[in-house]
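Below is one record:
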Amino acid sequence: MRALRVAIGIAAVIFVAAAAFLLFAWRSEIPEDTTAAEARFAAELVAKGAQLAALGNCIACHTVPGRPAFAGGLALPTPFGTIYSTNITPDRETGIGGWSEAAFERAMREGVDREGSHLYPAFPYEHFTRVSADDNRALYAFLMTRVAVKAEAPENDLPFPLKFRPLLAGWKLLFLDSGEREPDPGQSDAWNRGRYLAEGLGHCGACHTPRNPFGAEDRDRHFGGGEAEGWQAYAINTESQGADPLGRAKPHLLPSQRLARIPRRFARTYGRGDGQSGLPAGQRYRGDRHLCQIDHGRPDAGTRAKGGAVARGF
């Protein structure tokens, strides 16, 4: 009888602990905004959002080559399985067409979708949580003014129990440092702006910082070099063997050693000047090996990737 009581007690503790965790992990659904896809935004706000989307290289992960921009479905291999990017066009059924600005900001800040499901950190919300409300508003305006594309992303290929999304609440408790960072008063405005861009939308550390066994960035080795989807991203801190943080190649290295090797499949075409996948008319994306640059004042320029491959976040 005593063994039975012990077993019942253990089962009760497990049940209570599981119920407490599920309550902790639960997030409410944000009601669908049936007018979101028809909203109107100022041209200046949309243009700002286009530049921010270029900086974040949103299109690289949310577009399958040869298919409509931002429609999702791209396979993202991780050490834990394959995750497919989501549709972020304003389609109400398969995209974010029913998302309010509040729902969009929650996804960026907390990694939770409109329906209350936790998002996998392949969507680098550990960086996007740093993005300001004003910049989130501009990104939202840009995405909600793209062409709506009906495209359902494939089911993620993950083993049990990783398919159980509430577990991600535990991951966030351990590894997500949410919220904006206050500027460092001991540094210049340019330095603080650079940190904001590199650690926020630029999510440089997503590739250039090594990860621990749980897939979180190793904060003690910030920008110390990492691996993403089969390619090595060199260190971009003072330990860099290829270039210093300002991009100046070290003279003792051969040219082939100065650049991270990026597979050709990472190259992306940003469209053909239709304004859907890049900047407004008169501006274009130019793909660089390290970031997406912007050419201004080119009336003949469309929104097409030029140059080398574009590295995208893990």
Q: What stands out?
A: Confidence is low (pLDDT under 50) at residues 251-314. The longest strand covers residues 75-78. The radius of gyration is 21 Å. The CA atoms of residues 290 and 311 lie 6 Å apart.
